[in-house]
Amino acid sequence: RRFDLSRTIGVSVSPCLTKVELRVACRGISDRDALSKPDPCVVLKMQSHGQWFEVDRTEVIRSSSSPVFSKIFLVDYYFEEVQRLRFELHDISSGNNGLRDADFLGSMECTLGQIVSQRKLTKALLKQGNTAGKSSITVTAEELSGNDDYVELSFSARKLDDKDFFSKSDPFLEIFRINDDGTESLVHRTETVMNNLSPVWKSFKVSLNTLCSGDHDRELKCTVWDWDSNGKHDFIGEFQTTFKEMRTEQEGKQIQWECINPKYQLKKKNYRNSGVVILNHCKIIKMYSFLDYIMGGCQIQFTVAIDFTASNGDPRNSCSLHYIHPYQPNEYLKALVAVGEICQDYDSDKMFPAFGFGALIPPDFKVSHDFAVNFDEDNPECAGIQGVVEAYQNCLPKIQLYGPTNIAPIIQKVASSASEEMHTKEAMEYFILLILTDGVITDMADTREAIVHASHLPMSVIIVGVGNADFTDMQILDGDDGILRSPKGEPVLRDIVQFVPFKDFKHASPAALAKSVLAEVPNQVVDYYNAKGIKPKCLSDYESTRTFSP
């Protein structure tokens, strides 16, 4: 059950990326009465629109002060949302399984992103009045594998029946999976090998979902035909198998099947078969998911760049996009907090570099397109999203808004960090650059060049257009409607830019903005590492639980 009303505001609904299993254990629960140990039960609640809703609860474990619950919570995981969770520990007295009579022993609040990025989260259980006792709770996350692995197969045959008068058969092979309702779905049809009774067909790749719906025991039907130019192909024979059987080829066993024509089997006395089909190789190609990389220790490095050009208007004037209103955050701050709040769960040090562009900066008031908002060029990092907000507010009175709007320098700055990371050839850090700008950029050619270069690196760029300018030109950078090319004509390797006009979300929740902006990031991370053939780090313990779980 998922309580989410933000779907009603017409934001494009993100598909649920993944289901996550949460396992819960507690330690050091104090006794309610000294004579007996508590009978603990954990209730999981999720927050939606400020309200807590119960999602599920564990079993009650009788008299245990350090219970390990067998109940597994299954929750939908959305990277682009802050999903707040609350684990409540109750002591359920034996006569009563309801919570009314139960003694509340403490609770722990966190986000699903925190559990996922740490894989195992241990925190103190807070009693009423938020005081920490001696007891703690540990929540462990595991992705429920929506297995996207591929398999590469190659088949050959020998001594197939000859169906042609003047030449030999022209065989091709079809593989069908048998669905739960008994219908058949074609998985693959090989090419036709002309005039050959012992054909070797080309190897092919197919996802395990397509081949057997992830079920290794699902029946597969394979049929061999003799191709005919008039489309009336002659049936040579067929056989049944499963992916489980094909998989044994990996252990070095050669697998072959007799190709049977049931009609001949009935009619001919000493009929053996209509030929033999051989599986030459079966190789499983693992496709890793966003959570594999995050749980493998990949950190999201989040950098912010803010537009300080004169077109924003004088910050002292209430019409300015940079106006600091005493009670209400301006659009820059709203966008920063909405996106930053999600990214910060995936960044262990919670330190965010923040840069400004398009302003004259002290001491000599020269224009800069990549100055540190805290004016510390050696360490532009701010502590948490709150630190970025404060640095932004402190910097405004000290600078003079100017121009032009050049964003290539800041993309290049983050790209140079990302390219150092790339040389480690490990999935350690992935960079997200959030650019907040009020207008169309001036250095379009350089920016295109910088984005094409960055598309080869572990980074993504998110641009939020603030204010009411005409952002048509910005859509070009977001390769959704065609391929972005550099001025020299080099295409981007992958689509790494997401552009969103803030005005589309002015009356929606911050969550809706974050959702729209961050929805593409998980796929961008996965595309980058999978294309490079980089596996998640420290998979060992996690991986073993996931290989071949159908």
From TrEMBL:
KW Nuclease (keyword) present: no
GO terms under biological process: cellular response to calcium ion
Family of this protein: Belongs to the copine family.
Pfam families, A to Z: C2 (PF00168), Copine (PF07002)
The protein's name in its UniProt record: C2 domain-containing protein
GO terms of molecular function: calcium-dependent phospholipid binding; metal ion binding
Domain C2: 1-125, 131-258
Entry's Gene Ontology cellular component terms: plasma membrane
Record Gene3D superfamilies: C2 domain
Keywords on record: Calcium, Metal-binding, Repeat
Keyword Repeat applies: yes
Coiled coil: none
